[in-house]
Amino acid sequence: MDLENIPKIGKKTIENLNKLNIYTIRELIEYFPYKYNFYNPSNINNASNNVNLTINGSIESIPRIVYIRKNFNYLSFRVLSSNKLINVIIFNRAFIKNNLTCGRNISLTGKYNVEKNAFTASNIMFTPLLNTFIEPIYHLKGNIKNKYLNKLIIENLNKLQIQRTIPEYLINKYKFMNELIALKEIHNPTSIDLLKKAKLVLIYKELFDFMFKINYLKTKRKTSETHILKKIDKDKINNLILKLPFTLTKDQLLAIEDIIKDFNINKRMNRIIIGDVGSGKTIVAFIAIYANYLAGYQSALLAPTEILTFQHFENIKNILDIRIEKLTSSTTKKDKEKIINKLNKGEIDCIIGTHSLINSDVKFNNLGLVITDEQHRFGVNQRKNLQNKGHSVDVLYMSATPIPRTYALTIYGDMDISEIKTKPSGRKEVITKIYKENELKEILKLMLEEIKNGHQVYVISPLVEENEETNLYDVEKLKEKLNIAFNNKIPIEILHGKLKNKEKDKVMENFKNNITKILISTTVIEVGVDVKNATCMVIFNAERFGLSTLHQLRGRVGRNDLKSYCLLISNVEKERLNVLVESSDGFYISEKDFELRGSGNLFGTKQSGEMDFKLANIKNDIKILKQCNIDSKEFIDNNQENNFKEYPYYKDIIEDINFID
Ligand code: ADP
Ligand code: MG
Question: Counting atoms of ligand 1 from 1, which one is nearest the CA of 283?
Answer without folding.
Answer: 6
